[in-house]
Each structure stands twice: as structure tokens, then as C-alpha cells.
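Write out this protein's structure.
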Amino acid sequence: MAPKTRRLLLSNLILEKFSKTEQGFGLAYGLIHDDQYFVLGFILSDESSNVKNLLQSDGNDLSLTSDLLKCWAANQTTLPGGVHIIGNVSIPNEDAFLVDVVEAAIPDIISEEVYHCPETQSPLSLVYKDGTIRASMVDDFMQKEELEYEIVPVEDILENFMLVHLKGQIVINVENSSESIVEEMQEQIARSLTEVFTFNFQSKVFLNGTEEICGADGSKKVDFLLFRDESGKKKKGRTGAEMEVISAELLSKPVKTKTTAEGNDLSKCAPIVQHKKGDIEFLRIPFVVDGLCYVHKDTKIGDLYPILQTCVSRQLLLTNTCLLSELRKTDSASTPVSMHFLSPQNGHFLTLVLPKKLDDSAQESKRQNLHEAFSLDKDRPVFRKGCQVLIKDDMKENSLLINPHVGLSPGIKDAEVAVVYGRYAYHHYMQDNFDDNGWGCAYRSLQTLVSWFRLQGYTDKPVPSHIAIQQCLVDIGDKPANFVGSKQWIGSTEVSFCMETLLGVTCRIMSVSSSEEMCSRVDELLRHFKTQGTPIMIGGGVLAHTILGVAWNPDSDDLRFLILDPHYTQGEDLTVIQTKGWCGWKGPDFWTKTAFYNLCMPQRPICL
């Protein structure tokens, strides 16, 4: 019987990545629920390698080289739990035989257990050629069925899922040598695939195994695991969060008495002690497990244990790679740290485990490989330490809001929309227990700009305080010494001076003499957000704001500006901020008709 699937959804970002890739092949990954395939992306083989070098011929059969398997396995471990390899992709371009070569290797890919598909289903095959994606299913008997699919925003796919944030600690005691680390980590990974862990949820539910659940009926859906207050109501997360987050804790079970197949108690056997003489350097590494899983909202609690197991094993595989890499470079190993990254080019989380002591410069080659594997632009950072994302349940109460514009619509039909790229923090009046009401709006806009460069990984310099901004302007000779500690305003020019002095970032100043001229230069703003992606500080009269995007329909000439207002004085309440217009889309009448405006437009560095 030919393989079938009920529904196939492709992330819109896949089409964008396909269009940027000249030629290649690799693996598609995504989520499966009730015979529905949700394809999130793909992992390419090394683009510098020839397909024939990666697929070796043995008679009439094609098989995978060990290098290719290692490459795929290493990159798969960065995916959240619940996300698996579910098919292959081919981008043949001028190589007409590429698709046939890759599909001929599918039986070997199946035999190597690279794919993760339900028993009743087969792996997908996605072929991109001449701007079109062809989807089919191919099983190990080479039966093929063409499939219909929908291309949808990645946000619409992830609306069907919840995020499980798993944290805990695994202590690694090992001799300081590559051989010992490999042996110990292999043992840890093997243990993680048995039921040696308990997963504890804030809802007082314990998963002790696939069949052993305490505190809940295994047939209940996973949203039961959301933290609830004393009345039984779900605890509200930070307003505006893209996904609901279930917090889980990793616990080790008490060691049980082992028995042989004949039932003999092994605890009565004599232990064997191996004594090794010599100087031995031992490592004790308290690795903090910090993993993520995507689970469908209809998933039952009883089906959650193996997903969490996968998450733990991937964390350990990443840790193993991290320890060995650092050991080769420095002859020592520091505590590895798990970090989560969420690039707009992916739309979903990836997780890396990186050495605590090594800086970004030591990881440049690794980042280059990741950009190539996941088809990411090579002119902006994605995997620098500063790019890591704090998960919602780790955020402190009243911490700064990140991207408060998410979820807002310009309300213009068929508009060309361009908004800020990536993440920034909303800085406004009265934060940090500092009263700057009435004079600090440009300072706060500058802080928002600096936060963007920090969260994109371009700098690790701290967001400057008002005093630090003033001192900077005094140091470069722009202001007199008594400017420090004053309540004097600054404008776009001073903001550009500080950006260049503090961060080394060049800013373009665009001047307009009226709101009408501002609107006439919308094409320049669109181009800025598409190419630079940085927030814009704008000053005019006595006010300063931050522009986060523009939307324009050239046929109707309908125009909106996405404005972040630093004059807000209350707490970090996203509902208030959005509904009251402190962050929102504004029409041309937002600008004073006769005012003169200067726009400070930071130019991002081209780097990885």
C-alpha cells in the first residue's frame, strides 16, 4: 500500500531558505502528530562537498559515508525534543541526477535509523526546483506518492504546540582525558534512554516512566501540567508570550537493587575494585541540564516521557561534544552551559552547549558550520552567546519587555511591511528606579538601540545609564563637564555620537523638514528595515521616539509607522502598552506637520 499522510504543513521559512540555496541535499526536520507532518526546516550537508563524495557506491547500492552521518547526527542534537528528522530534501539546480542519487540512498538512510517516522508512515521527500517545491513520500520499497501541502507562517504551525522547559543537574565525575570523557558520556547517554529519571512538574505531577505517573491521569492533555494556583486556575504567564511554557524538573531516581535474568540479587555479589597507580587529574562537572521540547497541545501526559528522554539524551550528546572540543583546545574542560537561540530565519529554537570559559572568537568555526547546515545568512550573528534567549519561566517578575510589538497589525490591506529584525528591550521613563520623566526620552530610545545590538550578539557592552551617556558626550568634547548629572535633553546627533563611541556603530542621520517629507521617504525606511533591521531613534521638537517598522500600500498610499514610545511611565504590562498605544502602528498624523525631524539609523556590522 502506498504511504499516505492526512496533512502536510511547511513553514514559510523553508521556501525562503530554498530560494537562497544554489544546490545541495540534506534532511528535513519537523514535528508529527496524528499523521500530520509539520515541517520546520532542513539540515544541509556540507555545501563544499560533492554529493558523490558523501554517498558511496557499493555495487548497485548507495550508502552514506560516516562523515555525513556524523554531520547530520551532530546538528540533529541541537533540535528541541519532539522535533525529529522526518525526510530528505534535494535542491538539484543544474544537476539533474541529484534527486535520483539522493532518493536511491533512502533505503540506507532508513537502515541507519536517521528518520523518525511513525510505523505506518514513510519519510518525506522535498525537491526544490525552478521556484517550486515537490513533496512526496518514498518508502524502503521505493514506492512514491506525490503529496499536496500548505505553506503557512511558522507561527501558525507552533500555535498547535506548547514548550516544555526541562531543567536539572547531572554530575559528571571523570578522569581528565578524552578517552575517559567519551566512555563516561556514552554511559550517561545510554542511561538516559532507560527509565532512570523522574520528571517533576510544578502541577505536582511526577513522570517516573512511560507507565508510571503520579498526580495525574496519563490520558489527560499536557496543558494539565501548566502551573496552577491554589484555586486550580492556570497561572498566567507574561502577557504576549508566543508559546505557553510548561516547567519541568529533572530528578534522578533512587538506585534500585539490580537482579540478573535468573532473578539473583546482584547486591550480594562481591564488588570488583580496580586500582590504578599514578597521578590522575579528576574532573567533577555539575552540568545543568537546560533543554526544550515542543509538544502538541493534544499530546497526552502518558506519551510525554520518551519526548523528555530524547531531550536529556540530546543535552548529553551536546555536552560530550563540548567537553571534547574544549579539551582539544585547552587541555582542560570547564563547566558546559546550555544556551537557546531563536533566529527569525529559523522561527524555532535551537540549543547549543558551549564552554563557560571560551569566548565567541573561539567558536567562530562552529558558528560557520551551523550557519551552513541550517541555511542561515552569513552576514549577521545567530549563535553568539549574546544571542541566547531567556525562556519565559526564567524571566524575573517585571523584567524588561522584549519585542512588545509582536502581535500588532498595521491594519492596511496588501501593504508592504518591514519591521525591526530580531530582538530588543523596551526602555522607557522611570525604569531602574530612576526618575527621568520629562527629559529622558532620547536617553531611553538610545538604550533600546543598544539593547538591540546586545541581543543580536554584536556587543557585550552594558546598556549605558543616563550618567554614562552624559559622561560619554563630555569625554568626546560634545558637552561641558557640568552636563553630567543634569536633566538636559539630547537629540539624534548625540545618540549617534554615543553609538559610535560606546559600540563602534556607525549611524546614518536622515533629516526631514515636515511630516509630509517624512512620508515621502517611506521607501528609504522600508529599505533600512529590510537590509539593516535596526530600530531607529527619531527626535523632533521636544520629543523622541523609536521607529520599529513601516507598512505602506503604494496603490492606496496608505501608510503606518510602528512606534515605540519611551514616555511610558508605568510597569511592564504588555496589555496596557499595546492597548493604550505606547507601542503601536501610527498614521502620518502622528508626526507634527511643521516639525523638523532627525532620524538616527544605526548601520549593523557585517559579521558572523
